[in-house]
C-alpha cells in the first residue's frame, strides 16, 4: 500500500488569502494539519488549543483554527491544526468524509462516493 496525496487549497475567510500544497491523505487522523508559519502567512489566527496523540503515542498540544478547504472540486469547512513549521500537510478523514470521498488504497486515489450514507432515525 502506498501514499495518497492530493492538491489542496486552504482559504482564510477573513482575507481570502490562500495556502496551496500537496497534502498527504491520512485516514488515521481526524483533523487537517498544515505548517503554522504557512497558515500565519495567509493571516489565519488560532481560535483554540487541543491535545493530540501522535502515531508514536506522544501527546502534544497544537493550536487550531478554521478554514475552507478545497480539493478535487469540493469545498468544505474544517478545523485546521497549526502544525510544526517543518510538518508535512495532512488531509484528515473529517474533511474527506465531509467532501464525500473515500480512499482507494490499491490505486492510491480518492474516489467520490455515489451517495453519502444517511441513516434514518427511528
Describe, in plain words, how this protein is organized in 3D:
With 122 residues, this protein is mainly beta. The chain has one domain (5-112): Beta Barrel (Cathepsin D, subunit A, domain 1). The chain contains 2 helices and 9 strands; from the N terminus they run E-E-E-H-E-E-E-E-H-E-E. The protein has helices spanning 36-41, 93-99; strands at 5-11, 18-25, 32-35, 48-53, 59-71, 74-83, 90-91, 101-104, 109-112. The strands form 2 sheets. Strands 1, 2, 3, 4, 5, 6 and 7 form a 7-stranded mixed β-sheet that branches. Strand 1 and strand 2 (18-25) form a beta hairpin. The N and C termini lie far apart (39 Å).
Write a brief structural summary:
The chain is mainly beta.
Entry keywords:
9 strands; globular; 2 helices; 122 residues; two-stranded antiparallel ribbon; 48% strand; mainly beta; 11% helix
> Outline, from the CA principal axes?
globular
Question: Count of helices?
Answer: 2
Q: Beta fraction of the residues?
A: over 45%
What count of domains describes the coordinates?
1
What's the topology here?
Layout (H helix, E strand, L loop, with lengths): L4 E7 L6 E8 L6 E4 H6 L6 E6 L5 E13 L2 E10 L6 E2 L1 H7 L1 E4 L4 E4 L10
